[in-house]
Write a structure and sequence with these properties.
alpha+beta, Structural Genomics Hypothetical 15.5 Kd Protein In mrcA-pckA Intergenic Region, Chain A, Pseudouridine synthase, 3 domains, 9-stranded mixed β-sheet, 4-stranded antiparallel β-sheet, 17 strands, 24% strand, elongated
Length: 280
Amino acid sequence: MSKQQGGQRKGKTLDKGSKKNFKKSFTKGSTPYKKAEPKLKNLSNPDEIRLNKYVANSGMCSRREADVHIATGLVSVNGKVITEMGYKVKLGDEVRYDGARINPEKKAYVLLNKPKGFATTTSEGKGRTVMDLVANATNSKIKPIGRLGRNSKGLLLFTNDDAIANKFTNSKNGVARLFHIELDKNLKLEDLKKIQNGFKVEGKLIEVEEISYIHGVSKKEIGLKIKNTGNTIIRTIFEYFKYDILSLDCVAIGHLTKKDIPRGSWKHLTEQELNTLKML
């Protein structure tokens, strides 16, 4: 057997007709190798949301329960009762559940252990703010309840739940906050008793829940429990009695403490913590 014959056995050669057919099979429009057309995706409108999801996201109920409420006529959109399953609403629509307007954002509750140097504001252009510290906590539009001054530190609660926020604005029935305060000099016992009993500044009665010396340290360090949400009133108290505040730290809000929250860090409230807060 010649080398040429041996080489022919290694691979079958194509004649001109076969080559032409082989090439044709790869040309555009040939059946065996026809290129598939890309499928178009069903693009949803980001400004629209299913009504049952809107209701569920508001925290009123689950999505399945929302379907029941919609079917029974408890939900209206822009003043019109909607019973249609799968109905879509725009984010700017006025949606009411059982007469009360609702918001599609999920309720969020974030507890921050604020360090010094951050302003308590949602306004831009104020330098470093507490909103920078909780920027990655949630997509919901939360805001701080009350204030801590830029040089103050400690616990600050953020939420988009108006019902919870309103608990703190009532100075008589609100949620008490506990502060660790360091003064520039020892607090006189007579001044401590006046603060505890309540006093008036420019005709306005100033009241606190409790005030006491902190055991084991100098009388410059004071524990103060008060229901007012701002720290301006605290500075008013001590300025009235001629003391300067060197340090102010919110160490507790109701039953909430700084345990396991390093300075500058935050956490979401647990279900138990939230339920207890609602009952206060």
